Amino acid sequence: MSNADLVIKDGLVVIPGTGILETDIAVEGGKISALGGEFTGRKEIIASGRYILPGIIDPHIHLGIFGDLVSEMETETRSGLLGGVTTVGCYMGGPDPYYPSFSNTIAMTEGKVSTDIFFHLGIMTPEQKEEIPRLIEELGITSFKLYMAGIPGLIPDVEDGFLYQTFETAAKIGDGIIICVHAENPSINATYRAELQKVLTDGSLADWSDTQPNFSEEEAVRRASYFAGLAGNRLYFVHISAAESIRTLAAIKSANPKIFVETTSPYLSVTKFSSKGLLAKMVPPFREDASVEALWQAIQNNIVDTIGTDNVTQTLAVKQVEKGMWGAMPGYPALGTHLPTILNYGVNQRGVSLVKVAELMSKKPAEIFGLYPQKGTIAPGSDADLVIIDLDKTVKVDHRNLGSAGDFSLFDGEELKGWPIMTIKSGQLVVKDSQLVGQSQGKFLRRSIG
Amino acid sequence: MSNADLVIKDGLVVIPGTGILETDIAVEGGKISALGGEFTGRKEIIASGRYILPGIIDPHIHLGIFGDLVSEMETETRSGLLGGVTTVGCYMGGPDPYYPSFSNTIAMTEGKVSTDIFFHLGIMTPEQKEEIPRLIEELGITSFKLYMAGIPGLIPDVEDGFLYQTFETAAKIGDGIIICVHAENPSINATYRAELQKVLTDGSLADWSDTQPNFSEEEAVRRASYFAGLAGNRLYFVHISAAESIRTLAAIKSANPKIFVETTSPYLSVTKFSSKGLLAKMVPPFREDASVEALWQAIQNNIVDTIGTDNVTQTLAVKQVEKGMWGAMPGYPALGTHLPTILNYGVNQRGVSLVKVAELMSKKPAEIFGLYPQKGTIAPGSDADLVIIDLDKTVKVDHRNLGSAGDFSLFDGEELKGWPIMTIKSGQLVVKDSQLVGQSQGKFLRRSIG
Amino acid sequence: MSNADLVIKDGLVVIPGTGILETDIAVEGGKISALGGEFTGRKEIIASGRYILPGIIDPHIHLGIFGDLVSEMETETRSGLLGGVTTVGCYMGGPDPYYPSFSNTIAMTEGKVSTDIFFHLGIMTPEQKEEIPRLIEELGITSFKLYMAGIPGLIPDVEDGFLYQTFETAAKIGDGIIICVHAENPSINATYRAELQKVLTDGSLADWSDTQPNFSEEEAVRRASYFAGLAGNRLYFVHISAAESIRTLAAIKSANPKIFVETTSPYLSVTKFSSKGLLAKMVPPFREDASVEALWQAIQNNIVDTIGTDNVTQTLAVKQVEKGMWGAMPGYPALGTHLPTILNYGVNQRGVSLVKVAELMSKKPAEIFGLYPQKGTIAPGSDADLVIIDLDKTVKVDHRNLGSAGDFSLFDGEELKGWPIMTIKSGQLVVKDSQLVGQSQGKFLRRSIG
Amino acid sequence: MSNADLVIKDGLVVIPGTGILETDIAVEGGKISALGGEFTGRKEIIASGRYILPGIIDPHIHLGIFGDLVSEMETETRSGLLGGVTTVGCYMGGPDPYYPSFSNTIAMTEGKVSTDIFFHLGIMTPEQKEEIPRLIEELGITSFKLYMAGIPGLIPDVEDGFLYQTFETAAKIGDGIIICVHAENPSINATYRAELQKVLTDGSLADWSDTQPNFSEEEAVRRASYFAGLAGNRLYFVHISAAESIRTLAAIKSANPKIFVETTSPYLSVTKFSSKGLLAKMVPPFREDASVEALWQAIQNNIVDTIGTDNVTQTLAVKQVEKGMWGAMPGYPALGTHLPTILNYGVNQRGVSLVKVAELMSKKPAEIFGLYPQKGTIAPGSDADLVIIDLDKTVKVDHRNLGSAGDFSLFDGEELKGWPIMTIKSGQLVVKDSQLVGQSQGKFLRRSIG
Ligand SMILES: [Zn+2]
Ligand SMILES: [Zn+2]
Ligand SMILES: [Zn+2]
Ligand SMILES: [Zn+2]
Ligand SMILES: [Zn+2]
Ligand SMILES: [Zn+2]
Ligand SMILES: [Zn+2]
Ligand SMILES: [Zn+2]
Q1: Burial category of B255 from C-beta neighbours within 10 Å (exposed 0-12, middle 13-18, buried 19 and up)
Q2: Mode of pairing for the β-strands spanning D31-36 and A56-62
Q3: Exposed/middle/buried for A201, CB within 10 Å: 0-12, 13-18, 19+?
């Protein structure tokens, strides 16, 4: 292993499922070629005493919702890269059939994305449900999403019959496909919203939380899990936010190993009492402290499988906080702070282990979405996507340094402790000390149901 | 206790919660005045060796759906009386506010009903929900019904938000009010119906069963129970039909004593393979054998609390079996065979005890709906509603003998063993050997939330 | 019903399983001959507004442990009668075969006991286990007891193998027989006792509690329930005392309806911090407040089936409190305060209903031990054992008024509110205002496995 | 990585927790120095297409029970090595204090053992329990064993009080110590044995199974788990054999992550109907087919954590099958067939994955007993203990080829498919095609509680 392209020397390598090893990493042709030591390479990074994680996979982002899709492909994956994210899973959807126009969308990523990218497609119509086999076969897309509660005016709700039929379709295809579900009860939400609208012409972030109560999420989780148990498909709950849902998922998961749970780094960091006010308006909304603590506990107890961001590129001009609780738009950028918030609130403040971080932020997203072991670990043969971190580095967040097209951050002005100091993508050092230092070429990740 | 109005001598008196006692019953002023012996009365019935049950309470009938309301008040309560039913609970509903017009409906019962009668009112609109307190206060109606799945074209579905709000309203009022729920998932039903309509232009009774699958009921049971657990109200599931629902209710009831379960005597007697074919078309549909057995087991295990009929006056001309599976109307008359089917299939065929029969067909309906101990037991002070049975009497069912305006029976031509031989209503012998022998004056039962 | 032997007029009659009825009770030949009214009798008791319970059945007493058996038959049943107890279940045991010598013991009761009496026999040897069928058949004894932990030096521990074999023997005989178990783990007790003996030469009542920790009882409850679940026999836990046991029994009972739970009126009234100190030394020991509250809660939740006393005639001379924690003898008399403590602590202080009191202190003991409906209810044909109570009567306890040969009470000096004011045994008024006013003739109750 | 001591080229490397990677392994100084490729070494093994597992760790063997301890150290570890086992955990015990004489035992291993070895010590007396801290500190022994049921005449039973106290001792020390438990109910066993002795003077292997019924194990599992839940210690059940225990452990483990379960390769391969007859006499006994299937299912469901052998060197002369069911001695050698039986019955017959095999036979034993990641995985820095297997190799078992001092095998004459073809110990090729080809130097593994 002399004359590798790159050798990272003397790091503390965090291998999910194995532990932390003090070892060199050799890279050739964009892939990890060897672990061990002592290696020599044409380039060397001395990582003495630094922890090295597999590149972070954010399984849940959105692009092009409020801005230009191609432009956001560029800005948002760059923001991810600055924060140690090397792969993103992006939700796309609309009322029309996907095949064959979506191949155009895939083609657009070329030369634009600096992280690798894969897509999840929203299934909203019977036609789209029919397309699933060929979307898998011909486009290499193996994950699909159903909105039990959509966004009023934007995304329609899916009724139980259609939900269940889609589960059955997935179950027939097998465990290579995974169905993602946004779990809330639309009727409960609508009722609470209407009740509040009678008495509040405007409201705070905490009031917004009351428009979609915690039990609306828990109920939907119970119902979707029930249907999935009957149908036999793999089911993935996106952005779980409430303590009540976690409690119920603990029981559900112990009986059904095909159910997976995602939360987000913002839900682990922010409550409805945030000083950011309506800038933090989101769907589902931020919850009270007890839910944040329940989510962290669920990470320790293996109830949560993955952590995403639900990143939406959002600007003050679009968000329009000045329109008040009812008028402001939901969403926020979060890719640039994804890993730092977990290092700060999880590792440094709550003693979460780095092995756990690597598991929930890299290995399990890769496994669940069919990318493992190309992604998700540090092993010979895997893509050389790596992030070197400094647990003691403290930075006061300024959104201007985060690379996103968004012009605010939920964490602006807050000091976070624990940051990536180098991001290596496909064997190339692309970020150093939060600055781009190389040209990263991301690619579309075609998957198969094996 | 000499010179009672009536003394029933030497019967085996089945007292729910106590057991079977060989004792005389004395009646004065329409009420039971004494138990014991030896009493003498101006009239005497020698019941030596016969079992005497408290008058059967059918908590679930409909009147006036396909025929004239006032006319059916007369014919159907008469049919009940012939079969040992002395009190009925009748579901009424419509889109308009109930108050004050429903007092007219109550007034209509006078002189028409030969059993006692109480009403449950369907809550379908926010206005009706608002009326609840005064319906209780001024009309003495304390039970209300929500249709999670209505009847397409006739009764609208209730959405979860409205369901939950109504539960909360009930919880605030307290345990004197009870919310009845028709539990099915309307979207699952609609989806299965649509799928079947694509492939079947007509179908059998068994095919009809596939349009509303068992798990549609189970899911709704789980969801309504979840909401009731949160809200804290008393909840009563009408006409549970599927083994799957029973399984789930066993767990639910052990955790929440405020949940009650009704099944019907037809669901305990008939399967989807009935030789009656589409004449037995019903909503929910008849199920397979395993569900019938699960319901009987649930009776032994205290999962089922009450047995009703879901009686609808139905005629061949209205039912229109000739229109096939999709066109025939649902429903059937069942009051006249209510007790005989339970005596035949339960007591004689499966060894269900008469104490259990008295509990599920009289005491618990009375307790749950606020009529106990005026109704539901045999004790000094209770109304003298009694039914004397002959467990060995075998009769081949002929609907013409059952007193209903309906012109068929699910059991026509079938021999049932175990029949009432005398019905005593308010202390008066009104039915003897399936013939009316007295003029029975039923009354509206006004209830309060105590 | 004119000229009954006795008529109790206008009382509020508490009928377990039915409710509270305002009705007269007629008595003839020592049995209840009629309920209702208006009756006239040769004797009449005007009970206007007073609650009338079925005679209390204490299913758990001991006689002749420290004193003379025949003498205690006289004094202790008299004490019971003064307190409203009309039937006692007495545990007897010894190393020798019971048959045929135990018929002598039965014969001794004649003319001595003033309550009715039935016996439970301890099964300690294989020979005794073999005797069970003929003890049932020839002596009419259908309940037997196993000590998982005996009393060191007095009663041997039963090992699991023997316990399980006895359960199997019972299961074969059927549900007419019931096995009572003293549930504690003898090895845990011995270990904790030995540890404490190393450090304490004497100790308080609270220290005594530490010699038999709560979990020693819980573990034994779990183990015996496991064996009973396998064998299929009916199992009755005597004197359950700890919150931990209750918690575990809630789960166990929901899965196995053949398991029954007794607690005692002292365990519902007294904690290890009692001012009576070592006078309250007992096996199992008194517990902390949380256990007392858990027991009351278990009464409301139907986890506890019966309430006994575990009465042992005890005197200061025998108890020898002056010998300290290790030397004092266990036990106390409790029959005379049995009902008053439940009326005081349960009905008056915690709102427990009188129907519940009648169920746990009369109906269920009768049902479980095969005496129902001769005992345990107020119905035509039942024995006329009745107790009329005054819920407002307050008395400061003085053991000298309680009729026992014991010369102290756990409640001496304490004011209890709620007392029996008349006890009627076999139709005869025998106690009035805590004074014997008639000659009560108790009898041995022979049972069968029906 | 040129000139490594050894390079294993082109194998399919099974890394528990990661997956199967096609990669080279470089070894230096007895440890794995690098994974990846292409490496060159002074020695090279071409493993193209062969699976390479981490060296198998058998956590449960016995030495010196019926034969000479030192001699068996030599013969039995050699037998292990031939079968791919590179580390053994050996149970030792006796009535005397261990400290300081056990350092002699440790010293004896030097030059004798060809696998690495660690010891578990039986705790049978209070003195031994007191020694635990210094046995950890000074001898590096961190695992201890309690026999709830001993071997009559050889090993005494431990009573619950002592068991619980030892659990508490362990809980205070922390999660670095682990308590192993032989879980059977001695009283149930004694009772069943005595019953059978009354009727059988001799019996078959299946009869022997009846002397220690399945529920004897399940009950002990429940009881020990209950005590461990209270105390808070880590608990390891050795040699679980019965379906009933598995069922109960599924529930227990979901609530308590500190409970671990071992089964043995013989229990996964042999039933009580084995043609080997009393040669297979064992404690606990072999069970019926359903238990074997339940154990395999438990492996798939993560209820079983580790697989051992419970190897006892046994000879026909000592076993004395001719003495019949009651007289024959228990035990058998199983080290040499340990991995082949799992490859045959698990991988080849039931589709168990090799990643699962590596996890249960190497990683988890290492983790649970404090040897990870020195042992239990294939990673830079780990000991270079490796076993290369051929899943298609079929061999008819002949105990004469297995290297043990035992002179029979449970599998003599049976064809097993799936065998190790090379064993590498500390970087040295020591076994090739079931022949010793090198001098393996095993060592005592000193552990600490971290
Ligand atoms: Zn969403
Ligand atoms: Zn999203
Ligand atoms: Zn309905
Ligand atoms: Zn209906
Ligand atoms: Zn006891
Ligand atoms: Zn006792
Ligand atoms: Zn063992
Ligand atoms: Zn062993």
Answers
A1: exposed
A2: unpaired
A3: exposed
* ipTM of this complex prediction, to 2 decimal places: 0.94
Over residues D392-424, the pLDDT tens digits come to 999 999 999 999 999 999 999 999 999 999 999
Measured CA distances, A350 to A267, A353, A420, D116 (Å) = 15, 9, 19, 38
Q: What's the CA-to-centroid distance between B202 and ligand 4, angstroms?
A: 25
Interface of D with C (CB under 8 A): 159-162, 164-165, 185, 187-192, 215, 219, 222-223, 226-227, 230
Nearest to D15 by CA among D332, D272, D354: D354
Across chain B, which has 450 residues, the per-10-residue mean pLDDT values are 86 97 96 91 95 98 96 98 98 94 97 98 97 97 98 90 98 98 98 97 97 98 98 98 97 94 98 98 98 97 97 96 97 98 98 98 98 98 98 98 97 98 98 94 95
User: What DSSP state is assigned to residue B330?
Assistant: P
CB within 8 Å of C172: residues ≥ 6 apart: none
- Which residues in chain C have their CB less than 8 angstroms from residue B254's CB? 254
pLDDT higher than 70, residue D125: yes
- Residue D444 pLDDT level (bands cut at 50, 70, 90): very high
> By C-alpha distance, which of C228, C109, C244 is closest to C180?
C228
Cβ within 8 Å of residue C400, ≥6 positions away: none
Tens digits of per-residue pLDDT, A347-376?
A: 999 999 999 999 999 999 999 999 999 999
pLDDT at position A1 over 90: no
Measure D287 CA to ligand 7 centroid, in angstroms.
15
Nearest bound ligand to the CA of residue B285: 3
Q: Which of B130, B188, B197 to mutate to test the interface with A (most CBs of A within 10 A)?
A: B188
As residues whose CB is below 5 A from the ion ligand 3, the structure lists B 182
Ligand with the closest atom to the CA of C220: 5
- In chain C, the domains with their CATH numbers are 4-52+381-436 (2.30.40.10), 55-368 (3.20.20.140)
Quote the DSSP letter at residue D1. Answer: -
Integer angstrom CA distances of residue A115 from A78, A239, A423, B12: 7, 22, 11, 84
Q: Mean pLDDT in chain D?
A: 97
Residues D90, D124 contacting (CB under 8 angstroms): no
Looking at B81-147, which runs of residues are DSSP E strands?
A: 85-92, 116-122, 143-147
Residue C48 burial (C-beta neighbours within 10 Å; 0-12, 13-18, 19+): exposed
Q: How many residues does chain C have?
A: 450
Shortest distance, CA C165 to any CA of chain D (angstroms)? 9
- Pairing relationship of beta strands B31-36 and B19-28 according to DSSP bridges: antiparallel
| pLDDT tens digits along B243-297 | 999 999 999 999 999 999 999 999 999 999 999 999 999 999 999 999 999 999 9
| pLDDT at site B2 | 62
Cβ separation A191–B162 shorter than 8 A = yes
pLDDT digits (tens, 9 = 90+) for B217-247: 999 999 999 999 999 999 999 999 999 999 9
Give the span between the Cα atoms of D162 and B88, in whole angstroms: 65
CA atoms within 13 A on the CB side of B277: 11
pLDDT band at A330 (very low <50, low <70, confident <90, very high): very high
Closest Cα in chain D to C126:
D191
Numbers of helices and strands, H then E, in chain A = 15, 17
Are B26 and C36 in contact (CB < 8 Å)? Answer: yes
Q: What is the mean pLDDT of residues D328-340?
A: 97
**Secondary structure (3-state) at A437:** coil
Q: Which of A161, A191, A226 sits opposite B222 (nearest CB)?
A: A226
Sequential DSSP letters for A147-216: ESS--TTTSPPPPHHHHHHHHHHHHHH-TT-EEEEE---HHHHHHHHHHHHHH-SS--HHHHHHTS-HHH
